[in-house]
Amino acid sequence: MPDRFSAFSFVDRITALEDGRRARGHFAIPAGLPAFSTCLVAEAVGQLAAWVAMAQADFQRRPVAALSGETRIVGEAAPGEILDLGVEIESCDADAVVYGGWARVADTPVLELRWCVGPMLPLVDFDAPEALRGDFETLCGPGKPPSRFPGITAPDLALIDRIPGQRLRAALNVPVSAPFFGDHFPRRPVFPATLLLDAQIRLAVRLAGETLPPGQRLRPARVADVKMRSFILPGQAVEIETVMRSATDGAAELTLAATVEGKRVATGRMEIVSRGSG
Amino acid sequence: MTTAEITREEISAVYPKVAQIMADALGCDVEQVGLSVPLIEGLNAESIDFLDIVFNLERAFKLKIPRGKIVEDARGDLPETAFEEKGHLTDAGLKRLREYLSEVPADRFRSPMRVADIPKLFTPETFCKIVARGLRAGPGAPKPDA
Questions:
Q1: Does A13-140 carry CATH code 3.10.129.10?
Q2: Contact A96 B51 (CB under 8 A)
Q3: Chain A closest-CA separation from residue B37 CA (Å)
Q4: pLDDT along chain A (278 residues), means of 10
Q5: What does CATH list as the number for A157-274?
């Protein structure tokens, strides 16, 4: 698996660890990338929490993305910068991990996660436990070699329905193969929830741009009550939808949804503000 | 105190908040969350919804609800081997479950019953009782968040 530990791994080193309780780490965003999305920052925080949870479960179980109560996006992280990561584990047992966390760049907050819940599933279904144990030891020791992440080509969105200012629906075709599946996960490729969220945010920003006063640059400020109901697999056709709930001069609140073959696979809410607000 | 039957008043006190949490988790109107509606067969709840509901009940009522608590409480002091056998409830286990889930009509308990099918019996009232028990047990019986 040549892309293992490089194509979708966003913790370079775990710098502090209190077993099952909290951890600190960092990730160097490769300087050569065109951008580094906020969703990947959230992925980095989630991955640090996953390492703590997997170690706590002695690499018998691993968490998967399921519920995220609130993500506050307060800054940006750019290529070439170092992401400082921290997680606090509220509880972790054989069934679920509950955690919060944050990401900063040079002491400036970028993102805060609160009330995240990940069901713990048999790790052996997703990866080789001993390989992951070895990766964890590397992360807690010298760290993995930095700057191996090659970036991600975001899947195209094809608009399929539109009520101007009220609703947008688009088709997202998950690739059959992509380098990130090498890490996510080696034995069971799953489209990362954070990449789905990235596509949903792109669609929501577009809808907000139809509603908020023209000429403003928009940014996502908050994502809430995200629920992943099932895995999205390579090659699946996903329909994503965003609906405007309210819009004022500088902020819009929208709902997010994703379906596969008519079945709801993800829901959430988000807030988009004009830059300088919120 | 905590072993006594939960009263209708205790259930009524927590039901509005419990129903709202369930409606939010299941993406339905709160009016659909009747006290006795089976969550799986009546409101299409999935395992992720139960995780969502329990997590939000914990946050709203400032309680800890360990996963698997319903089955554990139903079993009580009955040894695990006397409660279930090869994934199915024993006669003694089924009797305990009937007593514990007293809000569930008798005809919904089938014999033999798989342990994995127990969640099919759960209703909003099941969770109201868990919350009410937790509030009884908690110091100062905390009130739900507004």
A1: yes
A2: yes
A3: 22
A4: 74 97 97 94 98 98 96 96 97 93 97 96 96 95 85 91 96 94 94 97 94 85 95 97 92 96 95 78
A5: 3.10.129.10
